[in-house]
Amino acid sequence: MNHSRRRFATIGAIALSAALALTACAAPGDGDGDGGDGGDELTQVKLQLQWLPQGQFAGYFAAQELGYFEDEGLDVEIIPSGGDIVPQDALANGDVDYAIAWVPKVLGSIEQGANLTDIAQIFQRSGTLQVSFADSGIDSVADFEGKKIGSWGFGNEWEIFAAMAAEGLDSSTVQIITQDFNMNAFLQGDIDAAQAMTYNEYAQLLETANPDTGELYQPDDFNVISYQDTVGAMLQDAIWADTERLESDDEYQDTTVKFLKAVIRGWVYAAENPEKASEITIGEGSGWGPSHELWMVNETNKLIWPSPNGIGVMDEAAWDATVAGALSAVNESGASPITEEPPASAWSNEWIQQALDELEGEGLDLTGENFEPIEVELTEGGN
After folding, report:
1. In this predicted model, what pLDDT tens digit does every residue of 161-220 receive, in sequence order?
2. Which superfamily does 13-125+235-382 belong to?
3. pLDDT at 39
4. Which residues of the chain are under the pLDDT cut of 50?
5. CB neighbours of residue 33 within 10 Å
């Protein structure tokens, strides 16, 4: 794990060693960073991702690699998960300072007692798909009845069940198949419609050779249901903070705004330089090939931009729709992510708006008004 590079003023070797030792010993959120005002020490921050390094998180890696965190007086450690760490649990337990997680997953944790606040809704739209073969007859959620529907579980399934509920389907009308985070079971015929993200599993299909033709599969070979186009659409990647610290800790409040400013710069950079952002992500340990990683960055950008009110600003209507979907969704075990409305403290635009205001006048495209996705040519295996 690469930490952000430290920029120290010219000091003696003994002072440098002491500063490094102090930094290494600091606990999450500790430190006397000056916020980029010339002080030598950086405030340590721990950011928990919800998965392994990949283009989904390119903006955070860009902020680290390009020194945007350091410019704000922060030394940020980016911690991957891979499924072995639940981001919101790590945050609620005080192990990290901020976490990236999908909204419906955290709503469930909040109902169970976690005191967390969505401080930046980075993804403005859902990237979840359900993919079937073109001749399957599955063109919409209403066609799920009697079919084998793939779901990853782990809280990734709630859009499926919310969309089904809107169509009058409950889990007893379909066969829910637990799906690995790949498309193998679908390609082998074990699943009629597989769950996929625009930025990952869907690309895996288009990187695979069709055994009937020997050529790569094409979009016309599949029916693609986008949950963004259904009632089941839910908000996904958001930055979460500790609610109590936000309410009572002045230093944490200050760090939060600085952190968000750097993150904004990172995502603006990824929007304007997807190829370079992809290279940075690969350098941070992504195991994907270059064409797949570039696809991931490009598709992730589409979920973020445009952000008409400013990147990270919560659209209250989208929040309300997510809550409504979470209340209506019922899985095959009869469980729902939440059973009551979340508290008002579950989200706030205060901190992201302050960060955006402080970045005004720097010439950054904070809304994605000029954003244009690129064309990415996928290759077999994503290499």
Report:
1. 999 999 999 889 999 999 999 999 999 999 999 999 999 999 999 999 999 999 999 999
2. Periplasmic binding protein-like II (3.40.190.10)
3. 53
4. 1-27, 29-38
5. 24
- Tell me the pLDDT tens digit for each residue of 208-225: 999 999 999 999 999 999
Q: Do 13-125+235-382 and 128-229 agree at the fold level?
A: yes
Question: What are the residue boundaries of the structural domains of the chain, listed by start?
Answer: 13-125+235-382, 128-229
289: nearest Cα among 301, 274, 303, 279: 279
Please give the biggest Cα pair distance in the chain: 72
pTM score, two decimals?
0.90
Spatial contact of 375 and 294, defined as CB atoms under 8 Å apart: no
CATH class held by domain 128-229? alpha beta
Two structure tokens written together for 194: 């597989």
For 121-147, write each residue's pLDDT tens digit.
999 999 999 999 999 999 999 999 999
**CA 324 to CA 86: how far, in whole Å?**
24
Give the Cα-Cα-Cα angle 55, 118, 167 (nearest 5 degrees): 80
Q: Tokens 């919409």 correspond to what residue? A: 140
Q: Residue 196: what residue type?
A: A
